[in-house]
Amino acid sequence: MKKLISTIIISLALSSAVFALSDRYAELRTDVDMGFSNNYWAASDIFKENIEIDLQKIAEEMPKKGWMFDANLKAAQSLNFNFRKVEVKFKEEVEWNSNLNIGKGLFDFFGKGYEAGQTVDISAAGRADVFAVTSLEIGVNAKKFGIHITPSAFIPVAHLAMENTRASVTNTADSELKIDCVGNATMYTLYDLSKAEDFGPSSLAGCMGYDLKADVIIPVSKKISVTATARVPVIPGKLNFKTPVSAEASYNVSAMKYIDGDLKSPEFGYDIGETEEDALSINRPMKLGAKLTLQTKKKGVVFDVMGGAGFRYPFSDAMYVYPEYAADLKLCAWNALGVNLSTEYTDEIFSHSLGFRLNCRVLEIDFGVSLEGGSFINSFRGSGAGGYFTFCLGF
């Protein structure tokens, strides 16, 4: 079996040396990239024989902004043409980005406790966005400069905002524990969820948004180039329907009632409000950045360094700015076998990845895994994970 695998790898490498002398002129490409992370717990805290839960330690070490969980997914299919000096790329893509934040008060309560009569307030917030994107990239690579223009049309499939979600925990003077929780969320959608049977192409009318991306490449020398990039909104997408969701829960318990077995079930209730027409304008994140590329003559070694900023929900009251950076090292032999090492902070997640490339001209497979995290230090401890896979078929 080992000899068979070795023979296949050697054969592919030899054939690649012959057929992978240049980039493909046309290709059909599929990309999948996903990941999840949090800013505190690491894999080493969970995957061990004896799990220790030190509530006081957790309370002391929990970041001031509380516990955060992020999840992202990108899946795309594209048809690309490369005529050396002119590139054309048509892409269909789905993007999902989500975040959950639970306030530090919850961990302080369980880790430090509170005196009789004292009340602790706990907050929570979250968001989720789903976009369907169609883009057309046209690039011109001249001797002294290169410019790539990518207009995109996107449909904001859904937006979830969890806000005004709070809980209060009180230790009463008679040693009774009172817990009250109130949660509110709003779901914005393309169509009325209560009338799903009416959904059709007409539901998309007026919902589509547009943005524009531009990359300007300036070769400094044969081995060094600088790229300036910007993606800016042009027309926001719209979600025409809003559905409010609320939930309430309360629970009272005391040590004496627990001993006597006099325990009551928690009181819980929820309400899904009526869907109403209430348009929300939303854009994909705006991004600005610059990249420095260093490479050897035959691109056997390519090193990229990028820095920039992202603007989530641009031109709205909810907009906020976050930094981005990336450093990427590609090692390639005969344009056939490659290794990719990278570290980055993009889309508010730290990620460090190791990837591999196998290219035999008509077929290319790229795949990799990554350690991710909501904080830089924890990202090395395995507080999240991700992976990517790329499949190309062309000539």
Describe this structure in words.
There is one protein chain. This protein has 395 residues and is mainly beta. 12% of the residues lie in helices and 61% in strands. The chain is built from six helices and 18 strands. The chain has helices spanning 2-19, 43-46, 55-61, 105-112, 255-260, 376-379; strands at 26-38, 67-82, 86-102, 119-141, 146-171, 176-189, 209-219, 224-235, 237-254, 267-272, 276-282, 286-295, 301-312, 320-333, 337-346, 349-359, 363-373, 384-394. Helix 3 runs antiparallel to helix 4.
Keywords:
395 residues, mainly beta
Specify the helix fraction band.
10-25%
Q: How many distinct beta strands?
A: 18
Structural class call reads mainly beta
Q: Average pLDDT, to the nearest integer? A: 88
Characterize the quaternary organization of these chains: single chain
User: Judging from the principal axes of the Cα atoms, what is the shape?
Assistant: globular
Sequence of secondary-structure elements: HEHHEEHEEEEEEHEEEEEEEEHE
